[in-house]
Amino acid sequence: MKTIKIIALGALFLLALSIPSQAQKKNEFKVGWSIYAGWNPWDYAKQSGILKKWANKYDIKINLVKMDYIPSIEAYTSGELDACVMTNMDALTIPVASGIASTAIILGDFSNGNDALLVRNNLDVSGLKGKKVSLVEYSVSHYLLSRALDKNNLKDSDVKVINVSDSDIAPAYVSNSDQEAVVTWNPLVMEIMKTPGVSNIFDSSQIPGEILDMMMMNSKTLESNPQLAKALNGAWFEVMSVMSTRGAKADNALKAMAEAGGSSLTEYKAQLKTTAMFYKPVDAVDYMSGDEIQTKMRRVRNFCFKYGLLGDRVQSADDLGIEFPSGVVIGDQNNVYFKFDASYMQMASENKL
Amino acid sequence: MKLFGLRTKFSRPAALALSTILFGLTLWIYGDYSSDRHAENPRDKLMPTAGQMLTSMGKAIFRPNVIKEYDDDGELIPSNEPETLREAYEQGKLWNMLKNGEWQLWEDTMATGYRVFIAMIFILFGIFVGLYMGLFPVFDHLLYRFVLFFDKIPALALLPILFIVFGLGETAKIALIVIGVAPTIILDTYLRVKEIPNEHLTKGMTLRANSQEIVYKIVLPQIMPKVLDTIRLNFKAVILFLIAGEALAAEAGLGYRIFVVRRYMDMATIIPYVLWISLLAFLIDYFLRKWIQKKYVWLHQ
Questions:
Q1: Which ipTM was obtained for this model?
Q2: Model's pTM, two decimal places?
Q3: Domains: count for chain A
Q4: Which residues in chain A have Cβ-Cβ distances shorter than 8 Å to B37?
Q5: What secondary structure letter does DSSP report for A64?
Q6: Is the distance from CB of A80 to CB of A211 less than 8 angstroms?
Q7: What is the distance in angstroms between the Cα of A116 and the nearest Cα belonging to chain B?
Q8: B-chain residues within 8 Å CB-CB of A164?
Q9: Which of A16, A116, A309, B119 is least enclosed, having the fewest CB within 10 Å?
């Protein structure tokens, strides 16, 4: 009887979750962001009034909410947010795997060293065979490890993965010298690297352009509300142009972004060095429309499929379609759940917003 | 017949029907919402259907936990590793695979079971601490206030410290359970000991029982069933602390699995796992209750 009681409680709990409805023309939107070097500019867009200016231009209201990373994606997936920042991999495994067709409307940056594999005792990647590695399982860290092993002719099963929550991964690694290897992201990487004897043996700059950070928008919402995508692009690239100038205005902007992420200006500048930002919309359009991104997305998708992260309906990696701006689809054309749409960034580059 | 009477007697079938109403209602509401969501989005993972849950549990039970390797085009690289229980059995690898923890549900259950087992040994040890604390003033003064204080510390808040002190291995997770539950057991035993009428001790002493005989022949047998009951009721706390520990750092375990698949909202795995944990807890509780009833018949006479 107790077990049935648990079902009952579980069901009641789930009822408490709101049931989303979407795909209507509306003029008020909720957009989520979380702390990360490449996303902190969103907070500046809000504080400086740039976001409001662009929202007014399109006669909409944009409510930008700061959340923890995974909860923000969950909120997006359950329909509480219309758009949210996330990595390509998490977009595949969380909203897309749950059947929420999503479109990348802004390509903000790719990780260029922000994710790293750190070790003690001067181990190298091939020396990891048979060892334990701490990381957040099924996150981009896991992907990075898999790529590092692959490049050194090892298999995923050659190491033992220990799942450690990101809230404790840095202090736990720093204080236990018997833990040899850890994979994590910035600012935790910078924090762990302060420990003597720890070295960085593989990071995302060795797989550039594979871990993408994007603004994802619900495709149904996008269809009937393109003005949100336009306003977000307008605001984003205005902030980007502020960031890429020199002078007091840029310094103040960077300071605000550093504060938004809870780090000092120096730390934030260091984080930006390992983040390949697309400051100019034309660069983002070029990368999104190129061939390279297709190979890289395929790799990420195959990794997700290997671990069964694409949902139970996906029997082979090609069951899921990913569409690129050129119209090329990898996977099933009738099942496109993930779309890269460069048209709004294109408008930004042509000053047509 | 008066439905709301104070002394209304229900026939057994009627009583049973009444008890099932709320269960049925919840299941029905869940099913209704779930099918609504699936009508709108067939890939919905938030409220999985019974079929989805069966599939994912089927995988957890019948498929080995082997990472398949794919080449760069997404083509499966063929391997000879068995893909089902039957194949493993036919290839004579079943026992080895079970031993190496390559079956997800088995591996998780064993990992969790091991942690509970070791933690329970420490918790049972708490009975003796409470016993001596209640009977010998020296231990009373030495320990009582300390344990009382320790009991008030929210163990979960200590979790980061435990992981830093004990590392990410089993020690930290077991320590969390013991720190969380043992003080309650010690204090409960202490109170039970204090409840025993002083006359019993005096009587024992008059009959020339030494202190060890008083502890083990007079006091312990009297309090044992009640203390076991307390342990039984605190099993829920044991599981709670265990899952919290596994959520933070682990490589296998029932709580670990729930938290790791939560990242990609795999409710089809989480719900059956929650049911499985409850079922195991229920069974342990049931057998312990029956055993107490049988062994301590005098308690209920």
A1: 0.77
A2: 0.84
A3: 2
A4: 19
A5: E
A6: no
A7: 19
A8: 168, 248-249
A9: A16
